[in-house]
Amino acid sequence: MQQIPRAFRGRNSSGALPQEPSGSVVPPEERPPSCLSLSGRQPGGTAAYLLSSQPKDIPLTAPALNSALTDVTPYITAWEYERPNAVPIVGKRLGIAYLRENPYDRDSFGVLWSSCGLARGQGRPDYGRVHPQRQRQCMGGLLCQRCAGPADENEQGVLWLLDAEPGSPSPAEGEVTAHPPVCRGCAAEAIRRCPPLRRGHALIRVKEPEVSGVHGMLYRPTRLSTYAVATGRKEFIPYTDPMVRWVLAGQLYARLFDITPATHDELIREAA
Ligand SMILES: [Zn+2]
């Protein structure tokens, strides 16, 4: 069995990610809800062997980069022109595959990932969708989901901001989340600007984040066709489960261990 690392803690790139140029001040009516992109909803559906969200009505010429809106939109949020690619999915003996794959379609554990266009900043942000590759980049590298810089880390661990009902207890050991961590500045900004997060959230430090599986659509083989069929069920499947080869991955998820509640004082200092 393939060894699963305790956590992919390596900041997997050389660090510096391309940042969009700073834009001018965004008029209020242009501003997005500004929550962290916390939705776990995935594109795609259950129809036959194709992703149901096939590109439609996309003009040949995409609009110019909306750099002002890009600056205030979470890095992992998918944009209007970042549609899932309609790629046939076939069922093989041990799992699903694209009819024609390239080396970037699978992660290092051999799991197939959802194919999605890259057009960040073009059109409007779609806050209901997460871009699979950018989410994977942030979770795998422990980068801030909002700005793609390094997530904040101190002796108590990496900073995480999670949805929570007001007054609910701190997340339990082993909490499962597909939300990448955050930096202090983005945590403060998200809490300040997002009403649901203002009402309730969990701000925690995590010493042992364990990136341990994927979330995505589960497929099954059919006897009548070489194509696999989407079951309509999106599930969290650990890399140690052979069924992970039947999932079209949309997000990496982590289990959080050695959790300590974080104080808001440091965020207040950041926002001041
Ligand atoms: Zn950030």
SSE-based structural type: alpha+beta
Q: Which distinct ligands sit in these coordinates?
A: zinc ion
Range of helix content = 10-25%
Biggest β-sheet description = 6 strands, antiparallel
What is the beta-strand fraction? 25-35%
> What is the count of β-strands?
10
Please work out how many helical segments DSSP would assign. Answer: 5
Describe the structure.
With 272 residues, the protein is α+β, with helices and mostly antiparallel strands. The chain has one domain. Helix content is 14%, strand content 26%. The protein is built from 5 helices and 10 strands. The strands form 3 sheets. Strands 5, 6, 7, 8, 9 and 10 form a 6-stranded antiparallel β-sheet that branches. Strands 1-4 form a two-stranded antiparallel ribbon. The chain has a two-stranded antiparallel sheet with strand order 2-3. 38% of the residues are buried. The model is unreliable at 1-34 and 37-60 (pLDDT under 50). The site of zinc ion (ZN) has 8 residues, from helix 3.
